[in-house]
Amino acid sequence: MTALETLRSGIARTGDRLVEDARSRNGVVFAVLALLALLAPQLVGGYTLDLLTQLIIAILVVTSWIFIAGYFGMFSFAHAALYGIGAYATALLAGQAGVHPVLAVLLGGVVAGIFAIPIALPVLRLSGAYVGMATLAFAEIVYRLTIHFRDLTGGPTGYTGFPALFGGNRLALYYFVFAVVVVLLVVQYGLLVNRFGLVARAIREAPDAARMLGNNVPRYKLVGFVVGSAIAGVAGGLQIYTIQIISPPMIEVNRMIEFMAMGIIGGLRTIGGGIFGAVIVFGLNEGLRDLGEIRLVIWGAMLILVTIYFPDGLAASSLDPRDRLRELFDRK
């Protein structure tokens, strides 16, 4: 089978699976959410629209992390750092190199993917907690470098020397972000419902067995890590145009923990889990913002409960939530 035939077959399978999944309970929920997102600018504006834009970007970051951690089993702590690398690259390309802002977003994703390679190569030889330790060290190095190289990054105060996307038109920015995120979600979905996704799950469950079946496990893991990181880099580029600044707090460990909580609460085994988790955690953070740091305790407690009673996440739970609650109260 030629590469073109493989591509056509993959697109056809993706379309068939999309139609099938759209008829499921979660598919209906996602369709409703997408429709609400399309209509949102007609209903809200200003700060609320900016929050919705950031939520959509958060969905992209979380699903790209699930692409790596949930499907390949590489529990990386470097994702927020790679998201930040894409953001800084986008800002510097648009602000200092004169690259068109839209092109800068795409190139920011490429830069994040390139930076993912040196961290992915040693991670391929590690497993379990060692993956977390190595990627956490990488994230901390990136964080410190953004503070140290003040002339390039703006240091702790951040960098703002890049032009606004679409001349600062928030409506155009919102729909651009929405379109980019939908396209990249479909790309991830397409990869995961075809052979690439089947091999990824096999590697997660039994890497030795996947290798014995003739799969080049290191290559698949490297491609998965780079693709997920590049998508996170694109999300970082979109984020800077939403908030009009890039600064170190955007990539600190707390940010990574928030992304991970979104993925775990929603469910690590499906892209839909990232969407559910992002909506829930982002909504809680914003809705409870007046409570200050207490809000972190609330969604932290929720994370614990979900881990215990919904181990596959809210989106992937095989039982009706009411049945899960009955189990909770019936336990002795």
Describe the fold and architecture:
It is a single chain. The protein is mainly alpha-helical and 332 residues long. Helix content is 77%, strand content 0%. The chain contains 15 helices and no strands. Helix 3 packs across helix 13 and helix 8 runs antiparallel to helix 11. The radius of gyration is 20 Å and the shape is globular. The mean pLDDT is 86.
Features:
15 helices, 77% helix, globular, mainly alpha, 0% strand, single chain, 332 residues
Average pLDDT, to the nearest integer? 86
Number of helices: 15
Residue share in β-strands: under 5%
| Backbone structural class | mainly alpha
Shape category: globular
Tally of strands: 0
Helix content: over 70%
- Which series of helices and strands comes N to C? HHHHHHHHHHHHHHH
Q: Mind telling me the C-alpha Rg?
A: 20 Å
| Major beta-sheet overview | none
Unreliable stretches (pLDDT < 50, length at least 5) are none
Distance between the termini: 57 Å
